[in-house]
Amino acid sequence: MTGDTDRTPARTDRAPADARREAAVEAALARLDLPAKVALLAGADMWSLPANEEIGLGRLVMSDGPAGVRGEHWTADDPSVALPSPTALAATWDVDLARRAGRLLAQEARRKGAHVVLAPTVNLHRSPRGGRHFECYSEDPLLTGEIGAALVCGVQDGGVATTPKHFVANDSETDRYTVDVRADERTLRELYLAPFETIVRKAHPWGLMAAYNAVNGTSMSEHTALNLTVLREEWGFDGVLVSDWTGARDTVRSALGGLDIAMPGPATVYGEHLVAAVREGLVPESAVNGLARNVLRLAARVGLLAGAPAAVPAGELPPPVDGEALVRELAARSFVLLRNEGGVLPLDPAPASLALIGAAATEARIGGGGSAQVFPTRIVGPLDGLRAALGADTALVHETGADPRTFVPAAAFPCTAELLGADGTVLGTAALTDGSVRWLGSLPGGVSFGDLAAVRLTGATPAGPAGRHLLAVRGVGRFTLEADGEVLFDGVLLPEGEDPAAAFLNPPERRFEVELPEGGRTAVTLTCTMPETGEFAGFGLVSFALGHAEPTVSPDELIERAVEAARAAEVAVVVVGTTEEVESEGVDRDGLRLPGRQDELVARVAAANPRTVVVVNAGAPVLMPWRESVAAVLLCWFPGQQAGEALADVLLGTVEPGGRLPTTWPAEEADSPVWEVVPTDGRLEYSEGLFIGYRAWQRRAGAAPAYWFGAGRGYTDWSYEGLEVRLVDSAEGATGATGTEGATPDVLAEVAVRVRNTGARTGREVVQVYLGTDGSDRSRPDRRLAGFAVVEAAPGAVATARIAVPLRAVQSWDTAARAWRTDPGVHLVEAGPHAGDRPLTVALVVPSA
Ligand code: BGC
Predict the structure, then answer these.
(1) CA-CA-CA-CA torsion for 422, 425, 428, 431, nearest 10 degrees?
(2) pLDDT at residue 503 tops 80
(3) Last residue of a domain, one of 492, 527, 549
(4) 176 CB under 6 A from ligand 1?
(5) Which candidate among 18, 294, 311, 531 keeps its CA 20 to 30 Å from the CA of 549?
(6) Is the Cα dihedral 374, 380, 383, 389 positive or negative?
(7) Nearest residue CA, atom 2 of ligand 1?
(8) CA of 510 to the centre of ligand 1 (A)
(9) Is pTM beyond 0.85 here?
């Protein structure tokens, strides 16, 4: 929908290569017996599918995304470029940038030997409580689908596969393995399936990941109607459908339900169980052939099948991407400026003194927790970024103000891990930079999980202040903690809830106090004994942490110090945010308040300094009760590894904050149109139907959210001056909205929106087009996003956004007819800067089909 800058020219010579690839796939398939075919359908280990030398098939490696490519090792020793979180990418509303982000992911995947990136996450922001909100794009299916399609194209430009996930309705985390989402067909089609459909039709992903949950009574890894009838037959998907990790539970139902790959391995419901099911006549061998064919096609596309041309020949790979530069650009483009009283931002010229306040100012959350986590080589936090960007003429001070973390952080001193065998023999050692141990899939020094009986971690607290130091154990299992030879804990920590990944994602903690004199140190040993049974036994996982915190001043004093620093400075910048405990995979949020005493901190600082700028470091909506009493509010999401550089760019005005909200921000929890994420009797009813996000807010007479979907502003002003709409004759076959290859020709209208930059700086505007009705049909949302485009203009100049509105914008799913129905009659084409402000309107008469 934006300029043509970064599009790959359509390859016209595709068909012969596709035909040769299909022929090679068929030839390989014909040479495999039943066990060999079945072997292709399950993980050999945590991240890979097995090779088969006889047919020239290489080992196929998958790696998590979507905010970076971690590779096969869950460790800081194997670093990755950490991109801004997906909410941030969607906040750019920029499909060209999304495509470039995809190319960076492909480059990282190639560097790490991965062939498939398990991304993007295209579930919807149904409720702001969704714990994985930061990892999804938006509350709107069109924005989600367009950004997702562009990202997939970018990754696949680099010859690497994607798996848009989690298909479908994994929009919250509570009981995610078992929850049965109940949604009517129209709701599924118009909201939750829609981004997947857009991506499949426009970007032709080579993979897709099935969700853990069930939809209307059937587990998604077994959902024949959605996986086969809708996805393959109707939308023409020809990639692989991979389970979410441990999500395949039934051999026969999964094989018949179209699940091509069960991950991780080696123990899965496929393997010998599937061979037996075929031999017993429960699964026809033709079904196995179909699954194996899809896997071989994937391998061929990524260049792992001898004799089959890769989808992107080595000579056609895109030029290298400068990862750090792109991450910095992306972050700044994603920041959303929600308030800027008296033009306090940009800080140009730089102030003589600046008080930077907040725990996140030194330890920003650069990404959300869970499988999306990657470990960058270096992180530039806000303090470092501002220090580097501000000259010597600005006095910069930092105060923590409030520390919202509820868990003791992993010890910040180096530790040694010894991997012990059953008889106590040291099988291997690893030098760790801090107190966290997280090994997934493989162990240091090539030690095998089968031989590992315990891990002993040793280290010593550095000389610190006198007082009570905290030591903590965080993990699931049996632990012994000793300080200077004294046993502080010898016992078992159990996970809360039934999510098997909770041990990994949200483990419990026990903490202990050790009194030390000024400059005193203590030698610490933490031993973790491996479980012999349980969900993760044999799964290839060791995950626990030794925590340490030095004595600190009281919370009251922390706030007082911050207030005094703010009072003495020309400008105060307060960085507030959520914590790992609040926003993470595996759990939903209890509420939207900022954790700890951060609200109080902001209110006190704002009272002390009228030039208070609040930077919100969160992946999803938080309440901002102080928002009308501070000078500026800037959302920076989870901004990736160049966080501080991007923040300095935006605060100092080198770059304009380019983002717009991809989701509506409520003022109060009680206002949220959809709140419930906890299933009742195993079921989560999507009883709100089509009315999530701004679609629901529009129905509320007199009520308004804190900030509408699409809202945000840069450093200039815009006036909306003209709107022209031209119906496209269906025979014209217009190009698709994102310019992605194979775009759908179903374009309803070409819309041109003229906007003028009325401010004093060159700027960037996200022009949005909504399609509305007269409101008489209460079963339909009053208006829906129908297209968008990014334009730039110099002061006083006019720019025209050209937006292709898809036919779907005037269609509804007809459940009785099981088909899309064009709604004839008058539709209002509205253009404006966000869902709550649409100054231009043109009535469009859609003829009966
Ligand atoms: C997550 C997936 C992820 C997989 C592998 C699952 O728990 O839901 O999104 O790709 O783990 O890490």
Answers:
(1) 100
(2) no
(3) 549
(4) no
(5) 531
(6) negative
(7) 244
(8) 27
(9) yes
